Amino acid sequence: MIAPDLETAIARLQELVHGAGTLVPFTGAGISTECGIPDFRSPGGLWTKNRPIPFDEFMSSQEARNESWRRRFAMEEQFASAKPGRGHRALASLYRAGKVPAVITQNIDNLHQASGISPGDVIELHGNTTFALCLDCDQRYELSWVRRHMDAGNGCAPDCPACGGYIKTATISFGQSMPDAAVRRAQDLAQSCDLLVSIGSSLVVWPAAGLPLMAKRSGAKLVIINREPTDFDEIADLVVRDDIGTVLEPFVGEHSAA
Ligand code: NAD
Ligand code: ZN
């Protein structure tokens, strides 16, 4: 059912939330646009400006690694200054109330953790861009360290001093395998929750986009909150095509698990 207006959407969502024992949110870039981080596919989104650099290119070309880091640093001001929005805060309230066991996200911006959800309960399907890892030995590097070495090395992205491996933001690029443990945990949650709420995802990136379907097949209710239509709207119990912050704001401060 597509909610006819905002008021009906919020009322219906409140009913579904209060009627569910466990609610699992699945979030995409749309929850963070009000925080100043553009999404990928909207007009003006990141992909309308830059073709993504696939993993094999990152691995085979020093220039691709340099370019990938230049792009990351060009976004640093936006990522570093972003604060959790109303959507993040609403989910954190439901988490504290015991309704939400964990959040599954495609986002890489660390804003769910910043909103107060324990890092262990943020399931990041596409990793995290606020720090870097050596692809060979897993050593963690801070972005400031990478930047210093790039500046000192004429714009050349540094390799791991410990093992010589390539250093990349802790994100999953196209062509890079998904983190097994995170995918398994996300699937378990989707299959065991009473209500899965997909928030701000165009639901086109697989396998993450399979989660709503998985939840539905396991008997959960499905809500989709997204400005644009998605391929899963037809099977959803409630579709809200409105602004995420506005729709979720009434849940900020929610403290009853009832
Ligand atoms: P997407 O760009 O494909 O879709 C975002 C959706 O959110 C769009 O359909 C858009 O219409 C909707 N939207 C945007 N702002 C909204 C708002 N205020 N209210 C309601 N709807 C809104 O995003 P996705 O499906 O999450 O993208 C896939 C990839 O993009 C992910 O792999 C993720 O890693 C990456 N990404 C992450 C961030 C981030 O961490 N904040 C930002 C950009 C891209
Ligand atoms: Zn290393």
Describe this structure in words.
The protein is an alpha/beta fold and 258 residues long. The chain has two domains: 1-36 and 84-126 and 178-258, Rossmann fold, CATH 3.40.50.1220; 39-74 and 129-171, SIR2/SIRT2 'Small Domain' (2-Layer Sandwich). It is 36% helix and 15% strand. The strands form two sheets. The protein has a six-stranded parallel β-sheet, sandwiched between helices. Helix 7 links the parallel strand 2 and strand 3 (122-124). The radius of gyration is 19 Å and the shape is elongated. The two termini are 24 Å apart. The model has no long low-confidence stretch (mean pLDDT 94). The structure holds nicotinamide-adenine-dinucleotide and zinc ion. Nicotinamide-adenine-dinucleotide is lined by residues 28-30, 32-34, 37, 39-42, 45-46, 106-109, 126, 200-202, 205, 226-228, 243-244. The site of zinc ion has 8 residues, from loops.
Features:
258 residues; alpha/beta; SIR2/SIRT2 'Small Domain'; 2 domains; three-stranded antiparallel sheet; 9 strands; binds nicotinamide-adenine-dinucleotide; binds zinc ion
Care to give the gist of this entry?
The protein has 258 residues and is α/β, with parallel strands linked by helices. It folds into two domains: 1-36 and 84-126 and 178-258, Rossmann fold; 39-74 and 129-171, SIR2/SIRT2 'Small Domain' (2-Layer Sandwich), CATH 3.30.1600.10. It has helices at 6-19, 46-49, 55-60, 62-74, 76-81, 86-96, 111-114, 143-152, 180-192, 211-217, 244-248; strands at residues 23-27, 103-105, 122-124, 127-134, 140-141, 167-171, 195-199, 221-225, 238-240.
